[in-house]
Amino acid sequence: MSDRFKEQASALLDNHFRDSDVDAEGPFNADLSALLDDQHARAAWSRYALVGHILRGDAQTNQQLDISVAVSAQIQQQAPLTSATSNTNVVQPSASQGGAQARAASRWLKPAGSVAIAASVALVAVLSIQQPVLDDTQPAVEAQVTPAIVTNPFGGRNPVSYNTVIDQQAPTEAELAQQRQLLQTYMIDHQRQIQLSMQANEQVTDPNVETVKEPPKQND
Amino acid sequence: MTKYVAAIALWFAAVASFAVPAQTDERAEIAANLGQQWFNRMADALRHLDFEATLVQAQGQRVQPLVWFHGSYDHDTDLELLIYLNGADMRVLRIGEQSYYYSAGGAHAYTLQSNVTFGLIPPAFYNSFSNISQHYQVIASGGMRVTGRNAQYLRLISRDNHRYHYDLWVDRETGMLLKMQMMTPQGEVLEQLQLTSFSVTNELPEPLIDLGQFQQPPRMYGNDDSTPVKFALQPDWLPDGFKQRIASHREVHDTRLPTDYYLFSDGLTEISVYITESQLQNLPSLALQGPDSMVNLRVNGFAVTVVGKVPAETLHMIAERTALKSTMESEE
């Protein structure tokens, strides 16, 4: 019995199920059903299939060999769910929804659309503005003691491309990296000096630079 | 309300002064006058307008979206907030004459004593055109629709070709800067700024209200600028209008490279000149042109590095024309 099933499973795999069948008078479907219902036969088919894959060299490691169990388990799990909730959860396409979409689309054509975008961006800004202020856990005293020279000014991180004509012998990778870094350093230093000079300029024009203004508090 | 009256008055003033010289002077003159008025309106808007805007800043392949808020508090102190939306969280908050620069984590935060915000538009745009009128001219020519608004087109060009040019589009209703292009004298666009949304709030924008508790980062101090320059070589030529702001001997940021440093400015653009002993600096002769250009040359046994927002050709001329002090003194 078991041997016959194995034989049939092998035949099924090779697509010769019907012609290898010895009991030709038995109905084809019944035989196939019997074969598919038999757990051992299915396991045998999986093994044969795997052997075939390995022989052909297209087997993958970690491949889920038999997904039929997982699939049937999933179907059993979902079957009651869908039947119970099909009336409530499944979205029914309706004319009213199409109308809403059309209205939404037409809204984009009006100037109001851009205001909405701006508003959403502004909202993000409002949500995030508090962060650097509050999250800054550095103690203020220490921050003042630390020399501010280590700061990297804005705008100083422009990527420096190296599309240059070099009229020396080709430098090594390390030398190139070093040179690129030095270029960056000059860029950063330049940005820093501009900012410092903006500050120096203020000091020249405005003698009251030492007065640190309190941040304004708006009370509505 | 008063702002509207002022804006309307300004508008009429602009129209009136347009009408009067129109009968006598040449068209170019009118365009220049009109350009200056528009430029000053823009400077006024950047100082006094309450607005919120979203914008995109593009430099070559890099695109950076930002949000920009501005408002004035008590008609006296103006507040400005810039938030960079891509990459590291960077923001700039300016309250009157203090500007605070924060970046992600607060590690590189610093404070500057400055009444303009650095990094977005040239600080000169916040001030009257008369400050830069000697070396630049601004010409009003035509209009265009920008950011969904009726905009006036301005060309800010240098009187020589040693500097970058700017194309500006300002809102005809409010004077606000809506779009900016920085380009080489040959017309290659190097940097762009484009507002994608803009609205006047007529009151302090919400993010600027109640800034009550925030930490002021440490003030950025420069190196001691009192050490005089040491080397025999020094810059001898710069385009007209560039005035020396700094001349000192120090080490370049984060390096131990002893350098004579010079900073020059024409009111809109800055140029840095670094002079180092040749054997200590291993950069080849090179020229990079971009939003910030850079040229490195060897002159008389010194490495001369020049950096600035000007064409590389200009920087090359500056580097080339550095001269030994002794010869300069003998000329005097």
Order of helices and strands of chain B: HHEEEEEEEEEEEEEEEEEEHEH
- Secondary structure: number of strands of chain A: 0
Number of domains of chain B: 2
Distance between the termini of chain A: 90 Å
Shape by Cα distribution of chain B: globular
User: Strand fraction band of chain A?
Assistant: under 5%
User: From the coordinates shown, what is the CATH architecture of the largest domain in chain B?
Assistant: Clam
Please identify which CATH superfamily of the largest domain in chain B we are dealing with. Lipoprotein localisation LolA/LolB/LppX
CATH class of the largest domain in chain B: Mainly Beta
Q: Describe the oligomeric state of these chains in a short phrase.
A: heterodimer
Structural class of chain A: mainly alpha
Mean of all residue-level pLDDT scores of chain B: 86
Q: What is the string of SSEs of chain A from the N terminus onward?
A: HHHHHHHH
Q: Main beta sheet of chain A: strand number and arrangement?
A: none
**Number of helical segments of chain B?**
4
